């Protein structure tokens, strides 16, 4: 039995002395014998020691001078590490040859006829890297195959549960025939996330993710990794099959049309793309319009609430992620966007998705659309009593950075109209999106909406829901409420927008203003 001087046993909560003693006691030497196998596997011919299961690897490194895992023993901690070599850390110019390394994995001989049954049982313990199958052929013996095991999850025979051991023995697997084999790994055997994690400095946050828009991969690199942007782009271009253009956002979205400046890191400088969402196709120039592929679930959620014949006013329609599926659901759609490029692709995408119903598209400012399109259409519908009038009316305002500010256009919108003209059974439901950095984002979103409207939202007629986390301490929310008569006819405590687009004086309460801030 291997013994270790007691004074070097670490005194920490993660190591139990009894357990550590048990692990070392179970370590035993074995000899591997040469076997014919697939070309990707080389048989180890020298003495090895079975390694101790994680999480004691790091602690075991301290005991190497005491004759455990040293010299030419195959199952050393370094050769069991199946991640890219540490020598690539800090690389800025991609050198694929620097990723070559030899790792050692445990193997068992298994009957070819029992692969299916063993695969289900041992799937989580198999050796899994890109481009290498965990079950290898043996050229000289068709009745037997080699099962490659993960050296970290399965460093010894004792790593198997009693149930797994019993099953393997019943299926003809000789557990005493435990061997270690060399496998050559290279750049092609790791995913983009594994490669980038190995390259980028440890003190950085790395690449938290990217958005895929057709053939374009869109990054938002932080300052601490910008110096590595070329190699990041090259790795993604190599590893993501559909990627042809890798871009990085170079500023925040702060212009009138809500698109952002970007630079091509690598690949084709082609921003024309075709992407799919929820079964619909959208084509556009990504450099000139706004598109967020992470909002597909929210788009579908709103569309699922719509019924055939409902009326949808989409104030900030973009290229049509709400308007197109709503129109295909045979809703009556009024879609608007100030960006002329978005307006162009909105119309194009209606045709691309074979929308057969009439869709009213507009290229107007949001307040102008509310005043000159939504108002007269609402009045016309409220005054119509013929036919089916059981449809619902929805106003979608998906411009999170600014949409709340546009709610003032509804305050006093119907001033001068007889209240008898209003059908209170068919008041519009507004879906207004916003961002919040508050500790209580739902309360903050509601307070901001109430601050602009100049009144509290009626209980039972509103809801606030978190859509997604955009960034640390920043959430996107949707405030849904009914556009009541009090809002539409208010003249005393609301902001009124004149026909010239100018605001008249507001008497919003001090409490509301304070909460809005």
Automatic annotation (TrEMBL):
GO terms for biological process: mitochondrial tRNA methylation; tRNA N1-guanine methylation. Its main location: mitochondrion. Residues 210-485 form the SAM-dependent methyltransferase TRM5/TYW2-type domain. It catalyses: guanosine(37) in tRNA + S-adenosyl-L-methionine = N(1)-methylguanosine(37) in tRNA + S-adenosyl-L-homocysteine + H(+). The keyword Mitochondrion applies. InterPro entries: MeTrfase_TRM5/TYW2, SAM-dependent_MTases_sf, TRM5-TYW2-like_MTfase, TRM5/TYW2-like_N, tRNA_Gua_MeTrfase_euk. PROSITE patterns: SAM_MT_TRM5_TYW2. It is found in: Mitochondrion matrix; Nucleus; Cytoplasm. GO terms for molecular function: tRNA (guanine(37)-N1)-methyltransferase activity. It is an enzyme of class 2 (transferase). Its EC number is 2.1.1.228. One of its GO terms (cellular component) is nucleus. Belongs to the class I-like SAM-binding methyltransferase superfamily. TRM5/TYW2 family. Belongs to the TRM5 / TYW2 family. Monomer. This is tRNA (guanine(37)-N1)-methyltransferase. It comes from Ridgeia piscesae (Tubeworm).
